[in-house]
Amino acid sequence: MDKPKIVLGVSGGIAAYKACELLRRLTESGHDVRVVPTESALHFVGEATWSALSGHPAVTQVWETVHEVPHVRIGQQADLVVVAPATADMLAKAAHGLADDLLTNTLLTARCPVVFAPAMHTEMWENAATQENVATLRRRGAVVLEPAVGRLTGVDTGKGRFPEPGEIFEVCRRVLARGAQAPDLAGRHVVVSAGGTREPLDPVRYLGNRSSGKQGYALARTAVARGARVTLVAANSELPDPAGVDVVHVGTAVQLREAVLKAAADADAVVMAAAVADFRPARYAEGKIKKRDGQEPEPVALVRNPDVLAELSADRARPGQIVVGFAAETDDVLANGRAKLARKGCDLLVVNEVGERRTFGSEENEAVVLAPDGTETPVPHGPKEALADTVWDLVSPCLT
Ligand SMILES: Cc1cc2nc3c(=O)[nH]c(=O)nc-3n(C[C@H](O)[C@H](O)[C@H](O)COP(=O)(O)O)c2cc1C
C-alpha cells in the first residue's frame, strides 16, 4: 500500500525549527511527507534541512518543475495538509484565498483535511483580524489549533506558543484516521471538564478522588480532531496539555464551577467528565491540623458543593446548548445512571462502573450512554478515545 501523503507547510515564524521534529515524527511513522516552506520560512530553517529530512525537494514557488504542475498536483494528491507553524500572515492568506506561492496554491487545491498550528506573539494572535481569519477557516472545516500559553520569542510569555510537536503529531494522526469523514464539530466551541477536584482541609491535606483526567483529555483531543475550538477545564490532572486546546487549570469544585460557567457562556456543548466532589470540609484550618496526645481527632464536618451539572442543565447559557454528564457508579450502575439522568436534566449521561482498580487511571473504559428518551448506547471495552468519539457522534447531530 502507498504511504499516506502529507504536505507539511512551514511559514515564517521562529517556531519553524520545531517543525523539524514534527517532520521526523511524521516520516518515521510511515508517512510520505513533502515540505512546502514559504520564502520567509527559509530565513529560519534552510532548504537543505527540509529536503534531507523529507527526502523530497522543498520548493517555495510555483515556477519550478512546471511541467508537473506542482501548484495543483501537490494539494490534489495529499491525504493531509498541516501548516506548522502557521503565521498570522499565512492564516490571513488562507482565509482570503490568496495564491502567491506554492503553499498558498496547495491550500486552495487540497481536498483533504487541513490542520493549522498557529504560532505568534499574543498581540498578533488576539488581533481581531487574526481571530476573524481563524473563525473563517474553522467554519470552512479546517482544524485550527489554539496556540499554547508560555514562553514566546525573546523574554515575552503569553498565548501564541507553538504546541509541542509530539502533540501536533497526535492531532495529525487522529485527523488522518478520520479519513474522509467531515470535521463535524468545525466552527463549534465545546467545553470539557476533566480530572478530580480536591477540597482542602488544611494547607497540606485535601479530600480528593482517583480521577486521572484521561477520559476528559480524550474528549478534548478527539473534539480538536473533529474541528472544534475546545476549552478544557482540568482539575488536578498531571497529563500534558493537549495541543490546540485552551486549558484552564483548577483545584476545587468551586473553582471548577466558575471556570466551566465562564467558558460555557458561548459553548455549543459542555461535557462534564470531571469527578467533582459532592462535599467539601465545612472549615479550612489555616495551619496544619495537629495530632494531640490523648485526644481523639475532631470529626470532619462537610458541606455540599454546588451541583455544576444540574446548574448547567437547568440554566443553559445559550439556546440549544447540549450538556453531557458522566456518572461513575460502583453498584446498580444502570439504575443509578437512569436516576441521575432524570435528576440532573442533562441531554446525555455516560455511565461507567468504577472502582479502586477499575476505570480510574486506566487507558480503557467501557460505558453506556443514556438519553432521556430511553435510548441506551453501549460502548464496549476499548480506548478512552473510542468512548470520546462515541460521545461526539451522539452530540454532533443534536447541535443547532
Ligand atoms: C525573527 C522573526 C520572528 C517572527 N516570528 C513570527 C511568528 O512567530 N509568527 C508570525 O506570525 N510571524 C512571525 N514573524 C513575521 C513573519 O515572518 C512575517 O509576517 C512574514 O511575512 C511571514 O511570511 P509567510 O507567512 O509567507 O511565511 C517573524 C519575523 C521575524 C523577523
| CATH superfamily label of the largest domain | CoaB-like
Task: Kindly provide the name of the CATH class of the largest domain.
Answer: Alpha Beta
Q: How widely separated are the two ends?
A: 40 Å
Helix amount? 25-40%
Work out the helix count. 14
Structural class: alpha/beta
Number of domains: 2
Taking all Cα atoms into account, the compactness measure Rg is 24 Å
> What small molecules are bound in this structure?
flavin mononucleotide
Question: Any guess at the CATH architecture of the largest domain?
Answer: 3-Layer(aba) Sandwich
Number of strands: 19
Biggest beta-sheet profile: 8 strands, mixed
Annotated CATH topology of the largest domain = Rossmann fold
Identify low-pLDDT runs: none
Basic shape: elongated
How big a fraction of the residues is strand? Answer: 15-25%
Strand order of the largest sheet: 12-11-8-13-16-17-18-19
Name the average pLDDT.
92
Region (Phosphopantothenate--cysteine ligase): 190-400
Region (Phosphopantothenoylcysteine decarboxylase): 1-189
Family: In the C-terminal section; belongs to the PPC synthetase family. In the N-terminal section; belongs to the HFCD (homo-oligomeric flavin containing Cys decarboxylase) superfamily.
Organism: Streptomyces triculaminicus
